[in-house]
């Protein structure tokens, strides 16, 4: 902003001056020598590490319903950004926040900041800077994560014969979209709708799993636009294809009971789950499958040398799939 009012600076220090913390005790010099308050923040890369950066912008009415509570908005914005670090195997360190607000409402800001803080504290990351402007509600968060040099998990390493794996269950956040107009917060009435809304409003970035996969997974991506669309990104970057098994696509009890007929298409093409999809050689999977972090991991298919996606159905038939997912334009 060019015309800084006292209110603007007051607002920043009151609601954003102390969000989150980063534990620097395991590094021999500070990783964040300078946070909020100067023209720039400063990050110092510990020896032998690289910084992974990702930015996500969420626009009101496009990426979240206008009725979302500010608490859930703060939580969700940071969660979806952290999910990109999880997909690279990076440990989150810090983030910056560009906030465009139609008005400065202290109650709204306090609740938004609380949603941010809850997740920032959980993952031990610090808000180190940002920008505040007036306009239609839009939030951009850039996250900064550390990864041992050369060990970030890219989309480009999948090899034919690798297993295609997925964490958690898919389709629940997509199912929530059917309930958003009726109930805009997780205080929904039935257990199943509460479950779907919780998955939509409070996605859990899979940071621990992503870090664990370093040195094991050949490729990884977070599932923001649906399994088919997101696996297709891995396939394209790696120059491979994939065969998925219908029976193995992980779906929650809530999804199967509430949305029986649509559960497969929701699990394959609905976005917003923020689970991880990754590839690894079968021998590697066999070694890791009994680890606690693999409790929620399913093998959903196998990487093939020919491009394109196919599905093997319960009756043994195979069909070509189109990589339908959420596209913005
Ligand atoms: P400048 O005009 O030099 O960019 P600003 O007035 O935009 O400075 O910001 C002042 C300080 O407050 C900077 O350190 C900036 O990073 C921080 N800041 C501004 N808005 C936010 C925000 N929404 N969240 C966190 N820090 C912010
Ligand atoms: Mg600025």
From TrEMBL:
Top EC class for this record: transferase
Domain PurM-like N-terminal stretches: 37-147
Domain PurM-like C-terminal: 159-312
Binding site for Mg(2+) 2: 56, 84
One Gene Ontology MF term: thiamine-phosphate kinase activity
Signal peptide annotation: none
Superkingdom field: Bacteria
Function, as annotated: Catalyzes the ATP-dependent phosphorylation of thiamine-monophosphate (TMP) to form thiamine-pyrophosphate (TPP), the active form of vitamin B1.
Protein name: Thiamine-monophosphate kinase
Upper taxonomic lineage: Bacteria, Pseudomonadati, Pseudomonadota, Gammaproteobacteria, Alteromonadales
């Amino acid at each position: 902003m060019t015309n800084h009012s006292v209110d603007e600076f007051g607002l920043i220090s009151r609601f954003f001056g102390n969000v989150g913390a980063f534990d620097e005790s395991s590094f021999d010099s500070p990783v964040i020598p300078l946070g909020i308050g100067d023209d720039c923040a400063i990050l110092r890369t510990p020896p032998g590490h690289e910084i992974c950066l990702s930015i996500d912008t969420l626009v009101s009415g496009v990426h979240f319903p206008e009725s979302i509570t500010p608490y859930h908005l703060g939580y969700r914005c940071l969660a979806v950004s952290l999910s990109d670090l999880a997909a690279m195997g990076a440990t989150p360190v810090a983030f910056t926040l560009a906030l465009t607000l139609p008005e400065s409402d202290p109650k709204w800001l306090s609740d938004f900041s609380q949603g941010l803080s809850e997740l920032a504290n959980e993952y031990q990351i610090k808000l180190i800077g940002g920008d505040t402007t007036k306009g239609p509600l839009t939030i951009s968060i850039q996250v900064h994560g550390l990864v041992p040099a050369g060990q970030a998990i890219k989309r480009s390493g999948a090899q034919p014969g690798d297993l295609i794996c997925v964490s958690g269950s898919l389709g629940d956040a997509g199912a929530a979209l059917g309930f958003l107009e009726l109930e805009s917060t997780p205080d929904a009435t039935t257990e199943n709708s509460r479950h779907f809304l919780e998955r939509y409003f409070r996605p859990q970035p899979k940071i621990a799993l992503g870090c664990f996969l370093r040195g094991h997974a050949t490729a990884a991506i977070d599932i923001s636009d649906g399994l088919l669309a997101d696996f297709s990104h891995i396939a394209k970057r790696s120059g491979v294809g994939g065969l998925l098994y219908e029976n193995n696509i992980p779906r929650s009890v809530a999804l199967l009971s509430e949305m029986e007929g649509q559960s497969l298409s929701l699990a394959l093409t609905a976005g917003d789950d923020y689970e991880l999809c990754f590839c690894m050689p079968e021998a590697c999977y066999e070694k890791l499958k009994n680890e606690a972090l693999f409790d929620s991991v399913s093998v959903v298919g196998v990487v093939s040398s020919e491009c394109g996606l196919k599905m093997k159905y319960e009756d043994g038939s195979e069909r070509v799939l189109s990589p339908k997912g959420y596209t913005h334009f």
